[in-house]
Amino acid sequence: MPHTHDVIIIGRGIAGVVLSETLHAMGKRVAVFDVPKTNAASPVAAGIVNPVAMRRIIASWRAAEMLDIAEPFYRSLEQEYGEVIWHPLPLVRLFANEREAQEWPRHLRDPEVGAFLAEGALPGFDADTFNAPHGYGVVKRCAWLDVEVMREAHRSKWTAMNALVEREVLPRDVLITEDGVEVFGCSAPWIVWCNGPFAALPGLVPTRGEVMSLHLPDLDAEAMVHRNGFLLPVGNNNYKLGSTFAWADVWSGPTESGREELVRKLNGLLGHVGSPPLSTGEGSGVRQASGVRPASRDRRPILGQVAPHQAAFNGLGSRGVLLAPWCAQHLVAHLFDAVPLDAEVNAARFHA
Ligand SMILES: Cc1cc2nc3c(=O)[nH]c(=O)nc-3n(C[C@H](O)[C@H](O)[C@H](O)COP(=O)(O)OP(=O)(O)OC[C@H]3O[C@@H](n4cnc5c(N)ncnc54)[C@H](O)[C@@H]3O)c2cc1C
Predict the structure, then answer these.
(1) How many CB atoms lie within 10 A of CB 109?
(2) What is the Cα–Cα distance from 117 to 170, expressed in whole angstroms?
């Protein structure tokens, strides 16, 4: 019997959305299965795209290559969906101390990271509204992806195409046949698990992250602001504040300690250190959310075959928006054209 599909995808977070659209654009027949699960990463992801690793001020892994693929990919989805999802936005790094301020010119001259940094002040940015006694530096080529709008548009399109089934698929529901897999009446040569932190995958290190959404009527920031956390303007004086990292009790958020840490981050950014913490009680308009990042042991994606006719697209950790379009292209080239997987992302690196 011929297959009903070319690929069956399980999971519709950033990985599943990007992979399904990549395959669809190539003319492949795709079925997507997904159920919303508490603690999924994408519904809480801030969606920030930043090509600079802020702790050491170095370019993030293959930043230029990833960005050159990510931006046109999400722009093409905007055309497809008729929705704005890619919001270019500079990032302002508030210097933590004088030493950091003095080192910034050295980073500007660095041939790799310097390409992502802008010289001088950011027009229109009012540093006085932030706690910036040591000044600030500007990272360019950053953006904010509206993950929520993207996922909602994907859901509408794939439901209309009759290609989305909102149903849980467990490993025992997958029947392995001679030349592929069968799942609830669909068959294909490949099933790709895009199930994020819910996967049982060698090398995966689920990590809890918490964010807050809040309304700050007196703050009109036209840039993301970063120092030991970020404040992201998402329009109409609404902001996302994040984010925390926790490696224990990862499924138990939102937590009180997460709330306290986020409030400390906000007060640190706005300069209210020592003042009473932001009110987060009933009626304050502040929403706290928690998700589990599908991080990997070496902070690289996890791609490739994990069983006969089964592959994984996982390990997106904390830069999923930036990495996903390249990962999808790379995995598809591997599955359909036998292009060898890059050793840095190959799932096999974690197999004993
Ligand atoms: C607080 C926080 C802030 C973040 N901020 C950013 C950011 O600013 N920028 C950035 O790039 N990244 C950010 N990330 C990381 C980003 O969220 C991840 O890279 C990305 O969301 C991972 O997507 P995913 O598709 O792999 O997993 P998920 O988003 O978890 O998606 C998995 C999907 O599979 C479904 N599923 C699971 N099992 C099954 C099953 N058996 N059957 C059917 N469906 C199933 C789940 O319900 C879910 O819909 C953040 C993460 C957190 C937690």
Answers:
(1) 9
(2) 45
Domain limits at 193?
A: 7-46+147-203+297-350
Helical axes 14-25 vs 320-337, angle rounded to 10° = 50
Whether 317 is in a domain gets the answer yes
Neighbours of 113 (CB within 10 A): 21
Pull the structure tokens for residue 236: 């109409």
pLDDT tens digits, residue range 279-313? 666 667 789 999 999 999 999 999 999 999 999 99
Largest CA distance in the chain: 70
Decide if 10 contacts 170 (C-beta within 8 A). Answer: no
Residue listed under structure tokens 């996903």: 324
Adjacent-strand bridge partners of 190: 7
- The model's pTM is 0.97
Contact criterion met (CB below 8 Å) for 127 and 135: yes
Beta partners for 302?
314
Cβ-contact 12, 164 below 8 angstroms: yes
SS3 at position 284? coil
Is 276 within the bounds of a domain? no
**Chain centre distance of CA 280:** 25
Terminal-to-terminal C-alpha distance of the chain: 37
Q: Output the residue whose Cα is nearest ligand 1's atom 50.
A: 45
Report the CATH number at residue 28: 3.50.50.60
Ligand 1-lining residues (CB < 6 angstroms): 10-16, 33-37, 40-42, 44-48, 168-170, 194-198, 209-211, 242-243, 291, 293-294, 314, 316-322
Note the pLDDT tens digit of each residue in 124-161: 999 999 999 999 999 999 999 999 999 999 999 999 99
pLDDT at residue number 278: 62
Note whether residue 25 is domain-resident. Answer: yes
CB of 333 closer than 8 Å to CB of 325: no
